[in-house]
Amino acid sequence: MPVALWLPSIHRIARVLLLVAFCAGAEMPNASYLIALVQLPAQVVSGQFADLPDTPREPLTTFTTASGIQVYMPVEGDQICDAPLPATPYPNPALRLRCPDSLECGFAV
What gap in Å lies between CA 37 and CA 70, rounded to an integer? Predict the structure, then answer.
């Protein structure tokens, strides 16, 4: 328990602020996370991230599994970067959907 709550000589608002600061420190021992939550939106608004390169796009081809799912895969290598889903560098012919016509339930082999 913070000592500030036991000190009646401190103004009530000051005690509440000290309690909030204590709780924030207990929940987030690393203040850099809190600072990043404030700085990141400011950087986005100011356009600091506008000059960053786009995510690379690799040439893709499709692979059709035995169950009929079309899976995107890279033409060369094992990098799929920002490929549409479903995508994998290692296609498996036995891949099937757990729920018919829906990616929500996931896949099974």
Answer: 39
